[in-house]
Protein backbone atom coordinates (compact mmCIF):
# COMPACT_ATOMS: atom_id res chain seq x y z
CA UNK A 1 0.00 0.00 0.00
CA UNK A 2 2.88 2.38 0.66
CA UNK A 3 4.02 1.63 -2.90
CA UNK A 4 0.89 3.38 -3.96
CA UNK A 5 1.82 6.48 -1.96
CA UNK A 6 5.34 6.36 -3.36
CA UNK A 7 3.95 6.29 -6.90
CA UNK A 8 1.61 9.15 -6.07
CA UNK A 9 4.43 11.21 -4.59
CA UNK A 10 6.55 10.62 -7.66
CA UNK A 11 3.74 11.92 -9.86
CA UNK A 12 3.19 15.17 -7.94
CA UNK A 13 5.69 17.35 -9.84
CA UNK A 14 4.17 16.30 -13.15
CA UNK A 15 0.66 16.88 -11.83
CA UNK A 16 1.58 20.37 -10.67
CA UNK A 17 3.20 21.17 -13.97
CA UNK A 18 0.17 19.98 -15.86
CA UNK A 19 -2.17 21.83 -13.52
CA UNK A 20 -0.14 25.01 -13.99
CA UNK A 21 -0.33 24.66 -17.74
CA UNK A 22 -4.08 24.19 -17.47
CA UNK A 23 -4.86 26.96 -15.01
CA UNK A 24 -1.87 29.29 -15.42
CA UNK A 25 -2.33 30.28 -11.82
CA UNK A 26 -0.09 28.87 -9.09
CA UNK A 27 -2.74 28.71 -6.34
CA UNK A 28 -5.44 27.41 -8.62
CA UNK A 29 -3.01 24.77 -9.89
CA UNK A 30 -2.11 23.56 -6.42
CA UNK A 31 -5.81 23.56 -5.47
CA UNK A 32 -6.41 21.36 -8.46
CA UNK A 33 -3.59 19.01 -7.51
CA UNK A 34 -4.80 18.86 -3.91
CA UNK A 35 -8.32 17.98 -5.04
CA UNK A 36 -6.86 15.37 -7.33
CA UNK A 37 -4.82 13.81 -4.51
CA UNK A 38 -7.81 13.80 -2.15
CA UNK A 39 -9.88 12.15 -4.80
CA UNK A 40 -7.15 9.62 -5.52
CA UNK A 41 -6.93 8.71 -1.83
CA UNK A 42 -10.71 8.38 -1.63
CA UNK A 43 -10.78 6.14 -4.67
CA UNK A 44 -7.64 4.29 -3.77
CA UNK A 45 -9.54 1.08 -3.20
CA UNK A 46 -11.15 1.40 -6.60
CA UNK A 47 -7.83 1.63 -8.37
CA UNK A 48 -6.85 -1.57 -10.11
CA UNK A 49 -3.32 -1.86 -11.38
CA UNK A 50 -4.30 -2.09 -15.03
CA UNK A 51 -2.32 1.04 -15.89
CA UNK A 52 0.16 3.16 -14.03
CA UNK A 53 -0.78 5.20 -10.97
CA UNK A 54 0.61 8.20 -12.79
CA UNK A 55 -1.72 8.02 -15.78
CA UNK A 56 -4.64 7.33 -13.43
CA UNK A 57 -3.77 10.51 -11.51
CA UNK A 58 -3.61 12.54 -14.71
CA UNK A 59 -7.03 11.23 -15.61
CA UNK A 60 -8.42 12.32 -12.25
CA UNK A 61 -6.75 15.72 -12.51
CA UNK A 62 -8.03 16.29 -16.00
CA UNK A 63 -11.59 15.36 -15.08
CA UNK A 64 -11.39 17.56 -12.02
CA UNK A 65 -10.22 20.45 -14.15
CA UNK A 66 -13.06 19.93 -16.64
CA UNK A 67 -15.71 19.82 -13.93
CA UNK A 68 -14.22 22.85 -12.15
CA UNK A 69 -14.25 24.70 -15.43
CA UNK A 70 -17.89 23.85 -16.01
CA UNK A 71 -18.68 25.14 -12.54
CA UNK A 72 -16.67 28.30 -13.19
CA UNK A 73 -18.38 28.84 -16.52
CA UNK A 74 -21.74 28.51 -14.87
CA UNK A 75 -20.70 31.10 -12.36
CA UNK A 76 -19.12 33.69 -14.62
CA UNK A 77 -21.41 33.08 -17.55
CA UNK A 78 -20.82 31.01 -20.59
CA UNK A 79 -17.26 31.98 -21.26
CA UNK A 80 -15.28 29.87 -23.65
CA UNK A 81 -12.52 27.98 -21.96
CA UNK A 82 -9.63 30.09 -23.10
CA UNK A 83 -11.33 33.35 -22.26
CA UNK A 84 -11.98 32.07 -18.78
CA UNK A 85 -8.32 31.24 -18.45
CA UNK A 86 -7.18 34.61 -19.70
CA UNK A 87 -9.03 36.19 -16.82
CA UNK A 88 -6.48 35.00 -14.38
CA UNK A 89 -3.34 37.01 -14.89
CA UNK A 90 -0.73 34.73 -16.42
CA UNK A 91 1.84 34.07 -13.79
CA UNK A 92 4.70 34.11 -16.20
CA UNK A 93 7.90 32.71 -14.79
CA UNK A 94 9.66 32.81 -18.13
CA UNK A 95 12.77 34.76 -17.45
CA UNK A 96 14.49 34.96 -20.75
CA UNK A 97 13.21 36.03 -24.08
CA UNK A 98 13.48 32.63 -25.76
CA UNK A 99 11.46 30.98 -23.02
CA UNK A 100 8.94 33.78 -23.08
CA UNK A 101 8.62 33.19 -26.80
CA UNK A 102 8.06 29.48 -26.20
CA UNK A 103 5.52 30.20 -23.50
CA UNK A 104 3.58 32.49 -25.77
CA UNK A 105 3.61 29.89 -28.51
CA UNK A 106 2.40 27.14 -26.22
CA UNK A 107 -0.22 29.29 -24.57
CA UNK A 108 -1.48 30.29 -28.00
CA UNK A 109 -2.35 26.65 -28.69
CA UNK A 110 -5.92 25.51 -28.20
CA UNK A 111 -6.50 24.00 -24.79
CA UNK A 112 -6.93 20.56 -26.37
CA UNK A 113 -3.65 20.76 -28.26
CA UNK A 114 -1.80 22.18 -25.30
CA UNK A 115 -2.96 19.52 -22.86
CA UNK A 116 -2.20 16.73 -25.30
CA UNK A 117 1.28 18.07 -26.00
CA UNK A 118 2.01 18.37 -22.29
CA UNK A 119 0.70 14.92 -21.41
CA UNK A 120 2.70 13.15 -24.09
CA UNK A 121 5.79 15.26 -24.74
CA UNK A 122 6.34 16.56 -21.20
CA UNK A 123 4.72 14.03 -18.86
CA UNK A 124 5.58 11.02 -20.98
CA UNK A 125 2.13 9.44 -21.13
CA UNK A 126 1.51 6.95 -23.89
CA UNK A 127 -1.14 7.79 -26.48
CA UNK A 128 -3.49 5.33 -24.83
CA UNK A 129 -2.94 6.91 -21.41
CA UNK A 130 -3.38 10.43 -22.78
CA UNK A 131 -6.55 9.29 -24.54
CA UNK A 132 -7.83 7.86 -21.26
CA UNK A 133 -6.89 10.99 -19.32
CA UNK A 134 -8.63 13.38 -21.70
CA UNK A 135 -11.48 11.08 -22.63
CA UNK A 136 -10.92 11.04 -26.39
CA UNK A 137 -9.93 8.30 -28.87
CA UNK A 138 -6.28 7.62 -29.60
CA UNK A 139 -6.73 8.94 -33.14
CA UNK A 140 -7.71 12.31 -31.71
CA UNK A 141 -4.60 12.32 -29.55
CA UNK A 142 -2.49 11.65 -32.64
CA UNK A 143 -3.92 14.53 -34.64
CA UNK A 144 -3.93 17.02 -31.74
CA UNK A 145 -0.36 16.18 -30.98
CA UNK A 146 0.76 16.56 -34.59
CA UNK A 147 -0.98 19.91 -34.87
CA UNK A 148 0.44 21.15 -31.60
CA UNK A 149 3.96 20.19 -32.59
CA UNK A 150 3.58 21.69 -36.03
CA UNK A 151 2.24 24.95 -34.67
CA UNK A 152 5.06 25.15 -32.20
CA UNK A 153 7.68 24.23 -34.80
CA UNK A 154 6.38 26.90 -37.14
CA UNK A 155 6.52 29.54 -34.41
CA UNK A 156 10.02 28.50 -33.44
CA UNK A 157 11.16 28.53 -37.00
CA UNK A 158 9.74 32.00 -37.45
CA UNK A 159 11.30 32.84 -34.10
CA UNK A 160 11.42 36.40 -32.99
CA UNK A 161 12.06 37.37 -36.57
CA UNK A 162 9.42 38.91 -38.72
CA UNK A 163 7.03 36.52 -40.31
CA UNK A 164 8.36 35.36 -43.61
CA UNK A 165 6.57 36.52 -46.63
CA UNK A 166 5.83 33.63 -48.89
CA UNK B 1 -6.95 24.72 -41.15
CA UNK B 2 -6.53 21.44 -42.93
CA UNK B 3 -4.71 19.83 -40.05
CA UNK B 4 -2.82 17.53 -42.32
CA UNK B 5 0.42 19.05 -43.29
CA UNK B 6 1.37 16.77 -46.10
CA UNK B 7 4.92 16.50 -47.21
CA UNK B 8 4.95 15.68 -50.85
CA UNK B 9 8.18 14.19 -51.93
CA UNK B 10 9.57 13.90 -55.43
CA UNK B 11 8.73 11.05 -57.70
CA UNK B 12 7.27 7.92 -56.27
CA UNK B 13 8.18 8.58 -52.63
CA UNK B 14 5.23 7.60 -50.43
CA UNK B 15 3.13 10.35 -48.89
CA UNK B 16 3.37 10.93 -45.14
CA UNK B 17 2.03 13.71 -42.95
CA UNK B 18 2.64 15.29 -39.54
CA UNK B 19 0.48 12.70 -37.82
CA UNK B 20 2.58 9.92 -39.25
CA UNK B 21 5.83 11.65 -38.34
CA UNK B 22 4.66 12.63 -34.89
CA UNK B 23 3.43 9.15 -34.02
CA UNK B 24 6.55 7.60 -35.46
CA UNK B 25 8.75 9.78 -33.26
CA UNK B 26 6.82 8.64 -30.22
CA UNK B 27 7.06 5.02 -31.28
CA UNK B 28 3.27 5.03 -31.49
CA UNK B 29 2.73 4.67 -35.22
CA UNK B 30 0.40 1.83 -36.12
CA UNK B 31 2.38 -1.30 -36.97
CA UNK B 32 1.05 -1.30 -40.53
CA UNK B 33 2.27 2.30 -41.04
CA UNK B 34 5.72 2.00 -39.54
CA UNK B 35 7.54 0.63 -42.53
CA UNK B 36 6.01 3.18 -44.89
CA UNK B 37 7.00 6.07 -42.60
CA UNK B 38 10.52 4.82 -42.04
CA UNK B 39 11.06 4.43 -45.76
CA UNK B 40 9.76 7.91 -46.44
CA UNK B 41 12.08 9.50 -43.88
CA UNK B 42 15.00 7.65 -45.31
CA UNK B 43 14.19 8.50 -48.90
CA UNK B 44 13.83 12.26 -48.52
CA UNK B 45 15.97 14.51 -46.30
CA UNK B 46 13.02 16.93 -46.10
CA UNK B 47 11.16 14.45 -43.90
CA UNK B 48 14.10 14.04 -41.54
CA UNK B 49 14.23 17.83 -41.21
CA UNK B 50 10.53 17.97 -40.45
CA UNK B 51 10.97 15.22 -37.88
CA UNK B 52 13.72 17.23 -36.24
CA UNK B 53 11.48 20.31 -36.09
CA UNK B 54 8.77 18.34 -34.34
CA UNK B 55 11.28 16.96 -31.89
CA UNK B 56 12.49 20.49 -31.17
CA UNK B 57 8.92 21.45 -30.42
CA UNK B 58 8.89 18.74 -27.74
CA UNK B 59 12.05 20.00 -26.10
CA UNK B 60 10.59 23.50 -26.10
CA UNK B 61 7.50 22.15 -24.42
CA UNK B 62 9.66 20.47 -21.77
CA UNK B 63 11.58 23.69 -21.14
CA UNK B 64 8.26 25.44 -20.73
CA UNK B 65 7.07 22.76 -18.31
CA UNK B 66 10.25 22.95 -16.23
CA UNK B 67 10.06 26.73 -16.09
CA UNK B 68 6.44 26.50 -14.94
CA UNK B 69 7.43 24.30 -12.07
CA UNK B 70 9.64 26.87 -10.40
CA UNK B 71 8.47 26.46 -6.82
CA UNK B 72 8.68 23.46 -4.50
CA UNK B 73 5.35 21.81 -3.74
CA UNK B 74 3.57 23.45 -0.79
CA UNK B 75 3.02 21.47 2.40
CA UNK B 76 -0.63 20.97 1.60
CA UNK B 77 0.36 18.68 -1.26
CA UNK B 78 2.11 16.21 1.03
CA UNK B 79 0.20 13.08 0.11
CA UNK B 80 1.52 11.10 3.08
CA UNK B 81 0.18 13.65 5.51
CA UNK B 82 -3.12 13.67 3.64
CA UNK B 83 -3.28 9.90 3.87
CA UNK B 84 -2.44 10.00 7.59
CA UNK B 85 -5.11 12.63 8.26
CA UNK B 86 -7.56 10.58 6.30
CA UNK B 87 -6.71 7.52 8.39
CA UNK B 88 -7.11 9.52 11.59
CA UNK B 89 -10.47 10.79 10.39
CA UNK B 90 -11.53 7.25 9.59
CA UNK B 91 -10.46 6.03 13.02
CA UNK B 92 -12.39 8.86 14.66
CA UNK B 93 -15.39 8.10 12.52
CA UNK B 94 -15.19 4.39 13.30
CA UNK B 95 -14.86 5.20 16.98
CA UNK B 96 -17.92 7.43 16.77
CA UNK B 97 -19.83 4.71 14.95
CA UNK B 98 -18.65 2.23 17.57
CA UNK B 99 -19.87 4.45 20.39
CA UNK B 100 -23.23 4.86 18.69
CA UNK B 101 -23.48 1.13 18.17
CA UNK B 102 -22.61 0.39 21.78
CA UNK B 103 -25.21 2.91 22.95
CA UNK B 104 -27.76 1.45 20.58
CA UNK B 105 -26.92 -2.04 21.77
CA UNK B 106 -27.14 -1.07 25.43
CA UNK B 107 -30.42 0.68 24.78
CA UNK B 108 -31.75 -2.32 22.98
CA UNK B 109 -30.46 -4.80 25.55
CA UNK B 110 -31.76 -2.60 28.36
CA UNK B 111 -35.10 -2.34 26.65
CA UNK B 112 -35.20 -6.07 26.13
CA UNK B 113 -34.26 -6.82 29.68
CA UNK B 114 -36.71 -4.23 30.92
CA UNK B 115 -39.32 -5.79 28.72
CA UNK B 116 -38.46 -9.21 30.10
CA UNK B 117 -38.52 -7.89 33.63
CA UNK B 118 -41.84 -6.22 33.06
CA UNK B 119 -43.18 -9.39 31.59
CA UNK B 120 -41.86 -11.44 34.46
CA UNK B 121 -43.29 -8.99 37.02
CA UNK B 122 -46.70 -9.12 35.43
CA UNK B 123 -46.54 -12.88 35.30
CA UNK B 124 -45.62 -13.29 38.98
CA UNK B 125 -48.28 -10.82 40.15
CA UNK B 126 -50.87 -12.52 38.03
CA UNK B 127 -49.96 -15.99 39.34
CA UNK B 128 -50.19 -14.72 42.86
CA UNK B 129 -53.66 -13.24 42.56
CA UNK B 130 -54.88 -16.33 40.70
CA UNK B 131 -53.67 -18.46 43.61
CA UNK B 132 -55.43 -16.12 46.03
CA UNK B 133 -58.68 -16.34 44.09
CA UNK B 134 -58.44 -20.13 43.77
CA UNK B 135 -57.81 -20.59 47.47
CA UNK B 136 -60.73 -18.32 48.24
CA UNK B 137 -63.07 -20.44 46.09
CA UNK B 138 -61.92 -23.73 47.55
CA UNK B 139 -62.04 -22.82 51.25
CA UNK B 140 -64.97 -20.42 51.50
CA UNK B 141 -67.10 -23.28 50.15
CA UNK B 142 -66.25 -25.31 53.23
CA UNK B 143 -68.90 -25.08 55.88
CA UNK B 144 -67.46 -27.38 58.49
CA UNK B 145 -63.71 -26.78 58.09
CA UNK B 146 -63.19 -23.45 56.42
CA UNK B 147 -60.13 -22.75 58.58
CA UNK B 148 -57.39 -24.85 60.10
CA UNK B 149 -56.93 -22.73 63.19
CA UNK B 150 -59.87 -20.72 64.46
CA UNK B 151 -60.03 -17.17 65.74
CA UNK B 152 -60.01 -18.60 69.25
CA UNK B 153 -56.32 -19.34 68.82
CA UNK B 154 -55.50 -16.22 66.82
CA UNK B 155 -52.29 -15.52 68.73
CA UNK B 156 -50.98 -18.97 68.01
CA UNK B 157 -52.16 -18.75 64.38
CA UNK B 158 -50.39 -15.52 63.54
CA UNK B 159 -47.17 -16.60 65.28
CA UNK B 160 -47.19 -19.90 63.44
CA UNK B 161 -47.91 -18.36 60.02
CA UNK B 162 -45.33 -15.60 60.55
CA UNK B 163 -42.76 -18.27 61.24
CA UNK B 164 -43.67 -20.45 58.28
CA UNK B 165 -43.92 -17.58 55.78
CA UNK B 166 -41.00 -15.72 57.33
CA UNK B 167 -42.95 -12.45 57.23
CA UNK B 168 -44.97 -10.71 59.92
CA UNK B 169 -48.56 -12.00 59.70
CA UNK B 170 -51.05 -10.03 61.78
CA UNK B 171 -54.71 -10.58 62.23
CA UNK B 172 -56.20 -7.35 61.04
CA UNK B 173 -59.29 -6.21 62.88
CA UNK B 174 -61.85 -5.51 60.17
CA UNK B 175 -64.86 -5.26 62.47
CA UNK B 176 -65.06 -1.56 61.59
CA UNK B 177 -66.07 -2.67 58.10
CA UNK B 178 -68.49 -5.21 59.53
CA UNK B 179 -66.25 -8.29 59.09
CA UNK B 180 -65.45 -10.80 61.75
CA UNK B 181 -62.21 -12.78 61.82
CA UNK B 182 -62.88 -16.54 61.80
CA UNK B 183 -59.42 -18.05 61.49
CA UNK B 184 -56.77 -19.09 59.01
CA UNK B 185 -54.69 -21.82 57.44
CA UNK B 186 -51.37 -22.61 55.88
CA UNK B 187 -51.38 -23.30 52.13
CA UNK B 188 -49.03 -24.22 49.39
CA UNK B 189 -48.68 -21.95 46.37
CA UNK B 190 -47.90 -22.41 42.73
CA UNK B 191 -44.32 -21.29 43.26
CA UNK B 192 -43.83 -24.00 45.93
CA UNK B 193 -43.42 -21.43 48.70
CA UNK B 194 -45.82 -21.51 51.67
CA UNK B 195 -48.77 -19.14 51.67
CA UNK B 196 -51.36 -18.27 54.30
CA UNK B 197 -55.04 -17.48 54.22
CA UNK B 198 -56.97 -15.52 56.81
CA UNK B 199 -60.74 -15.69 56.62
CA UNK B 200 -63.35 -13.08 57.53
CA UNK B 201 -67.09 -13.02 57.21
CA UNK B 202 -69.67 -10.29 57.23
CA UNK B 203 -72.98 -10.15 59.16
CA UNK B 204 -74.65 -12.26 56.51
CA UNK B 205 -71.97 -14.95 56.66
CA UNK B 206 -70.44 -13.98 53.28
CA UNK B 207 -66.75 -14.65 53.45
CA UNK B 208 -63.72 -12.70 52.34
CA UNK B 209 -60.20 -14.06 52.46
CA UNK B 210 -56.81 -12.47 52.77
CA UNK B 211 -54.15 -14.50 51.01
CA UNK B 212 -50.53 -13.79 52.01
CA UNK B 213 -47.15 -14.90 50.78
CA UNK B 214 -43.62 -13.71 51.01
CA UNK B 215 -42.94 -11.27 48.19
CA UNK B 216 -40.29 -12.78 45.90
CA UNK B 217 -39.13 -9.91 43.77
CA UNK B 218 -42.30 -8.14 42.73
CA UNK B 219 -42.02 -4.37 42.79
CA UNK B 220 -44.13 -2.81 45.58
CA UNK B 221 -47.40 -1.57 44.11
CA UNK B 222 -50.69 0.02 44.97
CA UNK B 223 -54.06 -1.76 44.85
CA UNK B 224 -55.00 -3.58 41.69
CA UNK B 225 -58.17 -5.49 40.88
CA UNK B 226 -58.59 -8.90 39.44
CA UNK B 227 -61.89 -10.49 38.45
CA UNK B 228 -62.47 -14.20 38.09
CA UNK B 229 -65.43 -16.54 37.67
CA UNK B 230 -66.89 -14.21 35.06
CA UNK B 231 -66.82 -11.27 37.45
CA UNK B 232 -68.54 -13.05 40.36
CA UNK B 233 -65.32 -13.11 42.37
CA UNK B 234 -63.23 -9.97 42.83
CA UNK B 235 -59.74 -9.66 44.22
CA UNK B 236 -57.78 -6.65 45.36
CA UNK B 237 -54.09 -7.32 45.44
CA UNK B 238 -50.97 -5.37 46.22
CA UNK B 239 -47.35 -5.83 47.17
CA UNK B 240 -45.06 -4.32 49.71
CA UNK B 241 -41.38 -5.04 49.94
CA UNK B 242 -41.87 -8.19 52.09
CA UNK B 243 -45.38 -9.40 51.52
CA UNK B 244 -47.79 -10.11 48.69
CA UNK B 245 -51.45 -9.49 49.62
CA UNK B 246 -54.54 -10.79 47.86
CA UNK B 247 -57.95 -9.97 49.28
CA UNK B 248 -60.78 -11.89 47.61
CA UNK B 249 -64.52 -11.98 47.99
CA UNK B 250 -67.83 -11.97 46.17
CA UNK B 251 -68.52 -8.48 47.49
CA UNK B 252 -68.38 -5.37 45.37
CA UNK B 253 -65.05 -3.73 44.75
CA UNK B 254 -65.80 -0.83 47.07
CA UNK B 255 -66.27 -3.17 50.03
CA UNK B 256 -63.15 -5.14 49.16
CA UNK B 257 -61.19 -1.94 48.81
CA UNK B 258 -62.35 -0.84 52.26
CA UNK B 259 -61.16 -4.17 53.68
CA UNK B 260 -57.85 -3.86 51.87
CA UNK B 261 -57.32 -0.44 53.40
CA UNK B 262 -58.10 -1.90 56.80
CA UNK B 263 -55.47 -4.61 56.26
CA UNK B 264 -52.93 -2.05 55.14
CA UNK B 265 -53.61 0.03 58.22
CA UNK B 266 -53.20 -3.00 60.49
CA UNK B 267 -49.89 -3.85 58.80
CA UNK B 268 -48.61 -0.32 59.33
CA UNK B 269 -49.65 -0.53 62.92
CA UNK B 270 -47.88 -3.86 63.40
Quaternary state of this entry equals heterodimer
Q: How much helix is in the residues of chain B?
A: 40-55%
Q: What's the gyration radius of chain A in Å? A: 17 Å
Distance between the termini of chain A: 60 Å
Strand content of chain B: 15-25%
Strands of chain B, total number: 7
- How many strands appear in the DSSP assignment of chain A? 0
The secondary-structure class of chain A comes to mainly alpha
**Which regions of chain B are unreliable across 5 or more consecutive residues at pLDDT < 50?**
1-5
Low-confidence stretches of chain A: 77-94, 160-166
Give the integer mean of the pLDDT values of chain B.
87
Largest sheet of chain B: 7 strands, antiparallel
Helix content of chain A: over 70%
Q: How big a fraction of the residues of chain A is strand? A: under 5%
Report the C-alpha radius of gyration of chain B, rounded. 51 Å
Please state the overall shape of chain B, judged from the principal axes of the Cα atoms: rod-shaped
**Mean residue pLDDT of chain A:** 80
What is the succession of H and E elements of chain A?
HHHHHHHH
What key attributes describe this structure?
heterodimer, A: 166 residues, mainly alpha, 8 helices, 74% helix, B: 270 residues, alpha+beta, 7 strands, rod-shaped, disordered N terminus
Give a written overview of the molecule.
The complex is a heterodimer of chains A (about 170) and B (about 270). Helices cover about 75% and strands about 0% of the residues of chain A. Chain A has helices at about 1-25, 25-40, 55-75, 80-85, 95-110, 110-120, 125-135, 140-160. In chain A, helix 1 runs antiparallel to helix 2, helix 1 (about 1-25) packs parallel to helix 3 and helix 7 (about 125-135) crosses helix 8. The termini of chain A are far apart. Chain B contains six helices and seven strands; from the N terminus they run H-H-H-H-E-H-E-E-E-E-E-E-H. In chain B, helix 2 (about 30-45) crosses helix 3 (about 45-70). Chain B is rod-shaped, with a radius of gyration of 51 Å. Chain B starts with 17 loop residues before the first helix and ends with a helix.
Amino acid sequence: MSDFLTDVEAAIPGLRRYALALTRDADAADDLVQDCLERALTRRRLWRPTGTVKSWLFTILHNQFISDRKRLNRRVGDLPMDDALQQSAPDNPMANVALAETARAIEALSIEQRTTLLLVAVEGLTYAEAAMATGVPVGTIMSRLARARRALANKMEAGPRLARVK
Amino acid sequence: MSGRNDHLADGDTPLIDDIDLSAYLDGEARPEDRRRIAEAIESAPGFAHQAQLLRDADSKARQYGDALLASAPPARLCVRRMAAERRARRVRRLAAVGVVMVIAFLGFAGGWMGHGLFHQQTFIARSFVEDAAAAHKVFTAETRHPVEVTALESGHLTAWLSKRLNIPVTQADLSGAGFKFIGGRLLSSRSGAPAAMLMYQDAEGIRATLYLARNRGTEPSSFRFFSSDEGRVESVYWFDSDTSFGLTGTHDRETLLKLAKGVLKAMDGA
